[in-house]
Amino acid sequence: MTTPSARAKRAHTNSLNDYRPIFPHVTLKCLGQPLFRSQQARDYACTLDLDREVVSWKCLATAFVNDDSEAIRPRSWHVDFAVETEAETFLVTVEAKPKVTPTWAVKIAERMGYRLQNLTLRDVDPVLLQNCKDLMRYAGAEVPLGDRIRVLAALEEYGTLTLAEALSIIRESRPMHSIAALILSGTLDVDLSEALLGPDSVLRRAAK
Asked: For residues 195 and 192, what is the distance between their CA atoms, to the nearest angstrom?
């Protein structure tokens, strides 16, 4: 994954001390150290880990600086992530409140060959966001072989299971931890945008 980290100039007021680990600490597709500028950025990253189109993502503890400005203290624009999909790598800034991306920051990104996307969590499907946040709390959980076989055998027989049915099958581990881990690993498939995860959520074996 090629990112602009080495080419983007660091803002004078910006340092690694501005970025910190934020719960949940385990990630699935992050390259490098997961350090975040805000809770909003951390929450958005949960959706990146569960987005099938995302190959990988990287936290960028850097900011663009408007060096073309004659100001004593040139303006800066933070970039939170470089996101790689099969089609492109683009940059993302996550803000607490809507902001207009300055033209000079867009031009810097374009010169590097990237599209710069600026968003708030209001731009993200709230159902998807909450489901991703809920599931990522279980990232890192392990599923005993016996429990995995039980769930897959039941899906082989019935085709689908509700979340409540799948939880009742687990015998050797904590049920929600194991089912969430099977979803996060791509073993099980569930529609994360349809509704908040609940007893009637439908689980399927993920397509190979």
From this structure: 7
Per-residue pLDDT reduced to its tens digit, 91-125:
999 999 999 999 999 999 999 999 999 999 999 99
Rounded CA separation 204/192 (Å): 13
Is 175 strand, coil or helix?
helix
Write out pLDDT tens, residues 20-78: 999 999 999 999 999 999 999 999 999 999 999 999 999 998 788 887 656 666 788 99
Q: Using CA atoms, how far apart are residues 131 and 125, in angstroms rounded to an integer? A: 10
Q: How confident is the model at residue 207 (pLDDT cuts 50, 70, 90)?
A: confident
Rg (CA), the chain: 20
Q: Is 202 exposed, middle or buried (CB count within 10 Å of its CB: 0-12, 13-18, 19+)? A: middle
Q: Per the structure block, which two tokens stand in for 64?
A: 């663009």
Q: Pick one of 1.10.10, 1.10.150, 3.40.1350, 2.60.40 as the CATH number of 138-205.
A: 1.10.10
Contact indicator for 139, 27 with CB cutoff of 8 Å: yes
Name the token pair of 12. 């004078």
Contact 78, 89 (CB under 8 A): no
Structure tokens at 175: 């049920």
HEC readout, 67-79: CCCCCCCCCEEEE
- What are the start and end residues of each CATH 1.10.10 domain in the chain? 138-205
